[in-house]
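@channel sequence for tomorrow's demo:
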Amino acid sequence: MKVQSVVFVALLGMIACTPDYELSKRELGDVFYQLDAGAVDILLVVDNSCSMQPYQQELANNFDSFLTYFIEGDVDYQIGVATTTVIAPEPYASCTSADIAAIPLAGNLVDNMVVTTETPDASQVFSDLVNVGTCGAGMEMGLEAALQVLENPNAGLLREDAYLSVIFVSDEEDTSPMPVNDYINEMRAIKDETARQVYNASSLVVTDASQCNATQLASGATEGTRYLDVAQQSEGIQVNICAEDFASIVTDLSLNSSRLNDVFFLNNTPDLNTLIVSIDTDDYSSEIPCDSEDYPWTYEEVEIGGEPQPTIRFERSSLPPTGAKISVEYNISYAEQEFTCGGE
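structure tokens (generated this afternoon):
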């Protein structure tokens, strides 16, 4: 024991006196995995009241954007569309009895159709489905409509082993009869009790009426607070239907529903001069500089709950592939820093 102590002290002395010695090991490391979603069932609940035609058309025009990350992640998807009409209205204005009769009954999908990876001309089929018309009920019940479809085994949308993602699209508030938490609990209960993390809901609704233009407000645009509550509690996303860049919005929805991640949250604030990001796959293993040609990334601090959360964000055009292990090593920093790729 005495000899070992002397040797250890001597080694310490050698390290301390070696001017070129650099300690390369980082204090901390976070490890993430880009999980394979496998199969995802998506229910789009589209408002079919009189103000919705422009938004329906935007959705229809951007189906390819919606599929972006399902294709990139090789996701086995099924997509069904429902309306927000639970109680059919009487004929009104230009809406005839035939128009009202064409609205699918509550609990059913539009055209009883499910779009899958095998659907021929899926883009055109989707376009037809989301153009659900504008003769629906003025009292939109998106939450109730979604629950009735999910509880209907004859709808043909749900698979036992698939993730479930519900997307609400509306420019007005939900008027479903039950409290929001009841709908959240009932929708979670659709999936096995041990796998409730496989459900989420996102909301393409009015998140802030001040961001809507005069035409949208005149058409009745109101904040969808109940839809937003569902999205927040189920870890979905919330995007403003009044925004002009619909392609970007639809891409956000695609990324969230596909279960691929572009953002990875670190457990501590790193010293940016010590930050090392690595990616490991079956045929790739390397440290990745921020300006990498394969997987460029940036460091950001995202505000969550009023607190800055350190994150690594990859460019969406170059996400780590499914199955990839993402390792982030760093020393902790307590000082203010600004990230500049390639700089100090």
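heads up for whoever presents: The chain has two domains: 39-258, 261-344.
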